[in-house]
Write a structure and sequence with these properties.
Length: 117
Amino acid sequence: SEEEETDGRARPVQVLVVKDDHTFELDEAALSKILLAEEVRDREVVAISVAGAFRKGKSFLMDFMLRYMYSQASDKWLGDPEEPLTGFSWRGGSERETTGIQIWSEVFLVDKPDGSK
């Protein structure tokens, strides 16, 4: 399981690890900590997935999605163009940055227009 966040900030959490022998390992404890939290466990869950070839901008796109979710659909969700994107790790170059499956440690709770959660 990943190290506990020490500063209280949300972060990516690795829930599926790609092993050296090309097998996969599910980190059930990490996944359960997020999805079985008191405020989440009885709600419907929607997962948004970004997949594709390595070094093609997936983390960059996910950071834009985070910015939108944190803004709660404000008209100004794009923010200052000089403000750096934060969240999932990304950088220039040709080396792979992320493998496996990561999820965001903070679940965005939304009440739907019909009153369901």
